[in-house]
Amino acid sequence: MGWEILNGNKEGNEQGEWTYVRARGESSIDYGIVNEEAWEEIERFEVGEKMPVIMLIVVVIIVICFYFSFDSRKYPPGPWNLPLIGYLYKLDKKTPNLDLMQLAQKYGPIYTIKLGLTNTVVIAEAKLLKKVLLKDQVLARPPLLTFQMMFGEKGLTCCWPLHMWKNQRKFVADFLRTVGATKTATNKSTLEQLIRKSAENFVQDIHSRGDRTLLDPSEAVGNYVSTIVHTLLLGTSFSRDENTQIDLSSNIDDVSKMTFCSRLNFLPFAQFLPQYRKMKNVFKQTMEKIRHTQEKFVNTGVSNFSKNNTSLIDTFLTEMARNGSDEIYNAEQLKQLLFDLFAASTETTVHSIRWLLLYLARYQEVQSKVRRELLQVLQGKPPDTGDLAKLGYMKATIAEIARIRTLVPLGFPRYATEDFCVDNMTIKKDSLIIPLLWAIHMDPKVWEKLEEFSPDRFLDGEGKFCKHESLVPFQAGKRMCVGKHLANMMMFQFVATVLQKVKIECCGSDPVDFSYECGLSLLPKPQKLVFVKI
Ligand code: HEM
Question: Which ligand 1 atom is nearest residue 169's CA?
Fold first, then answer.
């Protein structure tokens, strides 16, 4: 038995307080003075009455707190993101590599940002990157719109599902081993001859223009690389007077500039805005041009098909003939595979060589040192892979180019297909993974005087080349660059052949322009250099 307060109003006079009260279980309402004693009873009763409700609320709060604290997993830290657009508003379209590097300085070597709605994990330390890229949970590529338009899920670069990627990765790796483009390949001589011949053609081209030629070398370097790549892929190289090749390379550059950081990838609603719709159309049209040109090359390759040839197209068509066109070995897959290999090899190697030429022109003492070493070691004979061990300074120079002008500055992204842990931190399923190679190669904790072009940093006390564990231009793990050795062979033969016959200088008093455009790869600005016959 007790009292219920109906209006809860404790107003009153000195004798007590007025309130409306009702005896429990009674319907009639009393109104009168309630003295202090009665109040205490009423309040005791009130508390007792509400006890189960209070208890329930407390239990619910405890359960909620427990539920949230139960997710005791630690996630990579990161900055505050705006709704819908995330951190995109703070990334400079031209230099996202620098903005992302700054965040690494603040939040550490692994951090999270949102790009649009996409949870993105950025990794800016080599050791950590290797740990992450070794995991099977990050073998996939992210489903970005521009990637889908450029690569789809066929070919190799963005190939998925897993069984298909594994099959095609093995197919390409076996092919590269057969032609001599892997570390363990035994029969390298045919490929070496092809690459050397192409480098000699570069020299001839330069010499044929005169003793001292002012030239933007992009086109000639493009010819050097694509002759090699086309011969490997199609069995024939294109005709030198065709402009098709140049158009193809410049179109690939154009899409590369738009590919990764494009707002199109992260703001799905942006596609409906006029500015982005236009961008999407330009991208689509450029891709159509590329595919049209590629089609011509593929048709030539198909019409020359022979089971006895060793080109990639012949090897693929042989496999297709053996299996009948199936889920993997079919015409669409062949076209995309050729596109991927062509784009991945030319885009990267051509720009690496262009950067190399710019640095050699600016740093004459490095150029002379590389040349002196070449003349001393080779003694006039053509260079081959066997000489590499004795060409430490040249290798160090190529490594320093890969560091100071990281060709794939934001790395080639991966995608987490499941939750996983690294260094006690959880990376969530569906996260985009950015291997921030630029920051890894420009980390002040790792590299001394990092802005300086200094091949010496890759030499030991005896002047021998030593690998540096923080130099990762090809990334790491099972999906790392499949063409690493081919790229190294092309770089090596180019430097070894060309530097013995040609001296590279800056154009008059014009300093070399080391600024860049940051797309999927790091593009140097077009500029002329002086090539002097030796
Ligand atoms: C300096 C030259 C090159 C650089 C810096 C470079 C860099 C890279 C990087 C960073 C990746 C991403 C790897 C990953 O996801 O972990 C990659 C993938 C790839 N690279 Fe290269 N690359 C170069 C030359 C080449 C060449 C010459 C080829 C020709 C065979 C090639 C073919 C590929 C292919 C097909 C992939 C995709 C592999 C896959 O997804 O399984 N690259 N490259």
Answer: 41
**CA nearest ligand 1 atom 41, residue:** 479
Do 62 and 110 fall within a single domain? no
Q: What ipTM was estimated for this complex?
A: 0.99
Residues 31 and 102 in one domain: no
Distance 226 CA to ligand 1 centre (A): 15
- Whether 83 is in a domain gets the answer no
For ligand 1, atom 22, name the residue with the nearest CA. 481
Structural domain total, the chain:
2
> Residues with Cβ within 6 A of ligand 1?
133, 156-157, 169, 340-341, 344-345, 348-349, 352, 407-408, 411-412, 473-475, 477, 479-483, 486-487
Determine the distance separating the centroid of ligand 1 and the alpha carbon of 475, expressed in angstroms: 9
Give the predicted TM-score (pTM) of the model: 0.86
Q: State which residues form the domain around 126.
A: 88-533
Whether residue 122 is found in the same domain as residue 65 = no
Q: 3-class SS at 533?
A: strand
No. of helices (H) and no. of strands (E), the chain: 16, 15
- Report the amino acid identity of residue 366: V
For residue 491, what are its two tokens? 């770089």
CA within 13 Å, CB half, 481:
21
Domain membership flag for residue 77 = no
- Residue 7 vs residue 414, higher pLDDT: 414
Helix, strand and coil in the chain, % to nearest 5: 55, 10, 35
d(CA 231, CA 332): 21
Cα gap 33→12, rounded to integer Å: 7
| 326 & 269 share domain | yes
pLDDT in tens, 117-135: 999 999 999 999 999 999 9
What digits encode the pLDDT tens for the residues 382-394? 998 889 999 999 9
Q: Which residues are part of a known binding site for heme?
A: 481
* Pocket residue to mutate for ligand 1, from 346, 474, 494, most atoms within 8 A of Cβ: 474
Residue to probe by mutation, ligand 1, list 346, 481, 482, most atoms within 8 Å of CB: 481
